[in-house]
């Protein structure tokens, strides 16, 4: 099978491309390297079934060619990371909306190519409904439009609306996956991703910087588990036209995460707290809790996270030590 992976030099995209190749597919990737890296796919370059295009998904001529040549599409290309979104709001909005429009238009035009759209747990916004895990049908609660971080949630929501509209009106087979804090080797902490930032700080014996009061909770998933899940979803006929939470449902506070990272790495780092305003910008808002309900995805595929937070920390530390 010929597969197109947009954002294929990114953290998740590179692992996905690697796994697809191991399953004897031909894989073409496109990435503008805004948050991805050639280093992530360096080991794939000698594979004759692999091709890499360093370009933007906004290049309509190239996208028409790549979509026309493939059988299925994994659309992961997007502006990602809280810090990147805040620093590059206009580019982020255009990439996330117009880029997805291009993918869906030509996937539909050139043979109704089955497409997986990568979405995000940011969709749920700052929903404060206690500690209850989010279901795919839950309401969304967002902050004011004057707070840039919520633009990411809105653009990904529009991507979902677009994908579902193409399915309902054009019968383009679309599957939507909402990722919850995917972690592991190759992930960078440059754009606000918390776990690799903690691990790098701990290994260097620098202060581990917890943003806010640290009582906020998150659920962390190992990248290989997520890659296996999205490939299985693409192989599931009943998954078309559906939205799925994809993540590990076990929560941990950011304070506890910092302590686990420090202990696991044997670090001498101090754990310090940094106000959100100093870490990001004045008026920054965060969500207190974010946990996926994975009941739905387990009804469609055999999905069960295999690596817990301790394993994720260990594997991430091994990567950075290397």
Task: Report on the architecture of this protein.
This protein is an alpha/beta fold and 322 residues long. The chain has a single domain (2-183, 221-249, 291-305), classed as 3-Layer(aba) Sandwich (Rossmann fold). The protein contains 11 helices and 13 strands. The strands form 4 sheets. It has a 7-stranded parallel sheet, with helices on both faces. Strand 1 (2-6), helix 1 (11-22) and strand 2 (26-31) form a beta-alpha-beta unit. Helix 2 packs across helix 4 (89-109) and helix 6 (194-203) crosses helix 11 (309-321). The longest helix is centred in the middle third of the chain and has 22 residues, at 149-170. It is globular and about 55 Å long. The relative contact order is 0.14. The mean pLDDT is 94.
Short account of what is shown:
The chain is of the alpha/beta class. It has 11 helices and 13 strands. It has a 7-stranded parallel β-sheet, sandwiched between helices. A two-stranded parallel sheet has the order 7-10.
State the low-pLDDT regions, or none: none
Report the top-level CATH class. Answer: Alpha Beta
Number of domains: 1
> What structural category arises from helix and sheet content?
alpha/beta
The helicity comes to 25-40%
The name of the CATH topology is Rossmann fold
What labels would you give this structure?
globular, 7-stranded parallel beta sheet, Rossmann fold, 40% helix, 322 residues, single chain, 17% strand, two-stranded parallel ribbon, alpha/beta, 13 strands
Layout: helices, strands, pairs:
Blueprint: E1 2-6, H1 11-22, E2 26-31, E3 50-54, H2 60-69, E4 72-75, H3 82-87, H4 89-109, E5 114-120, H5 149-170, E6 174-179, E7 182-183, H6 194-203, E8 208-211, E9 217-219, E10 221-222, H7 223-234, E11 243-246, E12 251-253, H8 254-265, E13 271-274, H9 276-279, H10 295-300, H11 309-321
Parallel strand pairs: 1-2, 1-4, 2-3, 4-5, 5-6, 6-11, 7-10, 8-13
Antiparallel strand pairs: 9-12
Helix pairs in contact: 1-7, 2-4, 4-5, 6-8, 6-11, 8-11
């Amino acid at each position: 099978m010929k597969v197109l992976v947009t954002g294929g030099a990114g953290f998740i995209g590179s692992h996905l491309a690697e796994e697809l190749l191991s399953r004897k597919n031909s894989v073409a990737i496109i990435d503008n390297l805004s948050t991805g890296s050639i280093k992530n796919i360096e080991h794939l370059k000698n594979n004759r079934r692999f091709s890499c295009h360093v370009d933007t998904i906004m290049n309509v001529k190239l996208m028409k060619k790549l979509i026309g040549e493939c059988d299925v599409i994994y659309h992961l290309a997007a502006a990602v990371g809280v810090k990147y979104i805040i620093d590059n709001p206009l580019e982020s909005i255009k990439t996330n909306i117009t880029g997805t429009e291009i993918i869906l238009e030509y996937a539909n035009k050139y043979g109704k190519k089955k497409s997986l759209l990568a979405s995000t747990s940011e969709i749920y916004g700052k929903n404060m409904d206690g500690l209850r895990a989010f279901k795919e049908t839950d309401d969304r609660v967002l902050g004011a439009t004057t707070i840039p971080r919520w633009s990411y949630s809105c653009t990904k929501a529009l991507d979902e609306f677009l994908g579902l509209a193409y399915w309902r009106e054009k019968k383009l087979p679309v599957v939507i996956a909402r990722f919850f804090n995917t972690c592991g080797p190759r992930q960078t902490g440059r754009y606000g991703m918390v776990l690799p930032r903690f691990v790098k700080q701990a290994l260097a014996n620098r202060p581990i910087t917890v943003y806010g009061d640290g009582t906020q909770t998150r659920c962390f998933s190992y990248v290989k588990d997520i890659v296996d899940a999205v490939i299985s979803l693409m192989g599931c006929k009943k998954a078309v036209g559906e939205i799925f939470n994809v993540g590990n449902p076990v929560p941990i506070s950011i304070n506890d995460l910092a302590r686990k990272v420090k202990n696991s790495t044997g670090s001498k780092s101090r754990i310090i707290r940094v106000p959100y305003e100093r870490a990001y910008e004045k008026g920054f808002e965060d969500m207190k809790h974010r946990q996926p309900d994975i009941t739905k995805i387990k009804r469609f595929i055999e999905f069960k996270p295999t690596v817990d937070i301790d394993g994720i920390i260990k594997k991430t530390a091994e990567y950075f030590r290397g």
